[in-house]
Amino acid sequence: AFSGVRLLPLKPVSTNLTQTFYSILGFTAFFATSVLLDSPDRLLSFRNGVLTVGLINFLAAIIQLGESYLGLPPILSFVRNADYAMFSNYEVGGLMRIQGTFPEASGFSSFTLPLFAFTFSLFRKNILSSISGSLSLGIFVLLLLSTSTTTYFSLGVYILCSCSVFILEVLSKGTQIILGKIAVIIWFV
């Protein structure tokens, strides 16, 4: 029996069709969403929906930490019912890896980082600032504690892009820089 790597001639396989199908569905979902969010009322509903998802995701991560550190019963086990491997109850440097309702910390971070970006953007624009700011800060702390390299790399890219956009806005509009609440948060971090 051969157990090494084999070179095979290039030919069509089912994954070619699958990836093409996923791509088409992704573009369709993007365009459908942009059409559905064409009115202010729908945008408000979308904003509230994303804030709700962010809160649920935040609470799930807190519950998972409670299960690990406080010995709570496995409350989230009903969510984790698939046949995939769960990488739960493992630590890095003494910190429990945060995965929330996901099978792995990188899944948690790739889902949670856009929620952080959304809530932080709302906070920066002073939209529901007490809710969006609190949720953004809580999500940010969980992302830092998740010990996921996906999180750290993505946060670095996000912060770099956000700072670049901020600097470009200041340079192009010639506005005065007023950091306010953001300066206080940066100081605490």
Write out key terms for the chains shown.
globular; mainly alpha; 189 residues; 65% helix; 6 helices
Q: Tell me the overall shape.
A: globular
Largest sheet: 2 strands, antiparallel
Helix content: 55-70%
| Tally of strands | 2
- Unreliable segments of 5+ consecutive residues: none
- The Cα radius of gyration reads 21 Å
Topology, pairings included?
Layout: H1 14-36, H2 40-69, E1 91-92, E2 95-96, H3 105-124, H4 129-145, H5 149-173, H6 181-188
Antiparallel strand pairs: 1-2
Helix pairs in contact: 2-3, 2-4, 3-4, 3-5
Task: Report on the architecture of this protein.
The protein is mainly α and 189 residues long. It has a two-stranded antiparallel sheet. The chain has helices at 14-36, 40-69, 105-124, 129-145, 149-173, 181-188, and strands spanning 91-92, 95-96. Helices cover 65% and strands 2% of the residues. The longest helix is centred in the N-terminal third of the chain and has 30 residues, at 40-69. It has 6 helices and 2 strands; from the N terminus they run H-H-E-E-H-H-H-H. Strand 1 and strand 2 (95-96) form a beta hairpin.
In short:
The chain is built from six helices and two strands. It is mostly helical.
